[in-house]
Write a structure and sequence with these properties.
By secondary structure, the chain is mainly α. The protein has seven helices and no strands. It starts with a helix and ends with a helix. The relative contact order is 0.12.
Length: 430
């Protein structure tokens, strides 16, 4: 169980480190995106400003040209030019230099129409607008533009590789997280079922212990009652045996003096009570029958009668002693059986309580593991949500580039080719 917990702790630490790396990567990507967005906003604002400025300049230029043409086309101006300027001194627009400049401007114009407005293209076109333009500076601008387009191409290719890699990694991550959440959910469900089963087993054991305690209490009460009944029986039978012994000894004193046992121990029973009862009975009988009978002669002891009474007393004593012996044996057996039953019950109670404690500990461990699984699942779900958010941001960052990568690459190649052709045209004019 400890090894399992350590393994889970290790897995959680690894997961936390991975999440931190993913968060750091997401933060860096977010910072780069924000930086790129800021640069785009700045570039767009600059382009918009340059476009507005360009429109204003063109409007002013057109207005100036219109006014200039109007001034130059005036009749008085034409008369003045005819008188002052000879035809051979007019500017020659068909020179090779001028033709190269115009052709290069046309190439740039076609490129701008093809790939859209670009600040560097605009600057090159603006430089070619002057009649006394220095082609060396234009060449530098064209070379810089070609180098810039090459860098943009490499950046796009690098960004494409980055996006594809991140999408693949994100897909693998999402798959792993989904699988882990599914495994944790199954583990939690299994542990909860085990917890409920153990709880029922503990409840059953506790109910069994309570029932066993009640049975032990009832058995103890029964044993007390049986023991009290036994003691009462022994006390009564012992008293009866003692009384019968006194009676037997008294009869022996009269009928069998040799068997008489003299004793100085006072008896709780009056040895003359029987004699008094006998005399009282005789007196009563005499009253009933009238005058006493005539004396028949001297009284003689009846050995047969005495032997019958003594035998009966001996039988009664023997029966009482047998009854006490049987009762004693039954009491001993009952007490031994009770003690054995109590010992077995105590042993079972101890085993059941130990089993309940063991199950309670196992239940606590399962609850702890289930709680850890719940926490791990919660963290994994959050990681899944973060991964989903990262993928959404990745789509925002990469979808447009991936969709238009080939188109941008083709346009960039055409732009580079056009710039090289423009440079070749200008170089041929030199």
């Amino acid at each position: 169980m400890v090894t399992k917990k350590q393994k889970k702790i290790g897995d959680l630490k690894v997961e936390i480190v991975n999440m931190k790396h993913m968060m750091n990567g997401g933060a860096e990507a977010l910072a780069e995106n924000k930086k790129m967005l800021a640069e785009l906003k700045k570039d767009c604002a600059q382009r918009a400003s340059e476009q507005d400025e360009k429109k204003a300049i063109r409007a002013d230029e057109l207005k100036a040209l219109e006014e200039t043409i109007k001034v130059l086309n005036d009749d008085d101006a034409l008369d003045l030019f005819r008188k002052t300027i000879k035809p051979t001194s007019l500017l020659q627009f068909n020179t090779a230099h001028e033709q190269a400049r115009e052709k290069a401007k046309q190439i740039l114009s076609d490129l701008r129409a093809l790939v859209g407005s670009h600040p560097e293209l605009n600057f090159i076109a603006l430089a070619l607008s002057g009649k006394n333009v220095d082609f060396t500076k234009v060449f530098k601008k064209i070379d810089g533009m070609v180098a810039l387009l090459g860098k943009e191409g490499k950046d796009d290719a690098s960004k494409k590789d980055y996006c594809n890699k991140e999408f693949n990694d994100a897909a693998d991550k999402a798959k792993d997280l989904k699988s882990k959440i599914s495994e944790l959910s199954a583990s939690i469900k299994e542990k909860q079922a085990s917890i409920e089963k153990i709880a029922e087993e503990i409840k059953s054991i506790n109910e069994g212990v309570r029932s066993l305690d009640e049975s032990m209490a009832q058995a103890t009460e029964n044993r007390k009652a049986e023991s009290a009944a036994y003691l009462e029986l022994v006390q009564q039978d012992s008293a009866a045996v003692e009384l019968l012994g006194v009676a037997k000894n008294r009869l022996n004193q009269f009928y069998n003096p040799k068997l008489f046992k003299a004793t100085t121990t006072p008896s709780p029973y009056d040895p003359y009570a029987l004699v008094q009862v006998s005399l009282h009975q005789k007196q009563t009988d005499a009253v009933k029958v009238g005058a006493p009978p005539a004396t028949a002669g001297a009284y003689k002891k009846s050995a047969a009668a005495s032997n019958g009474v003594l035998s009966m007393i001996a039988t009664m004593i023997s029966d009482l002693e047998k009854e006490m012996a049987v009762a004693k044996a039954d009491e001993k057996n009952s007490q031994a059986e009770y003690e054995s039953t109590v010992a077995d019950a105590k042993e079972k109670r101890a085993v059941d309580l130990k089993d309940a404690q063991s199950k309670a500990a196992a239940k606590a461990d399962l609850e702890g593991d289930s709680s850890e699984d719940e926490q791990t699942k919660s963290m994994t779900v959050k990681a899944q949500q973060a991964a989903t958010k990262f993928t959404e941001n990745l789509h925002k960052e990469c979808d447009w580039l991936l969709k238009n990568f080939d188109l941008r690459q083709s346009a960039r190649e055409e732009e580079v080719e056009g710039l090289k052709r423009a440079k070749a045209v200008l170089a041929g004019a030199d």
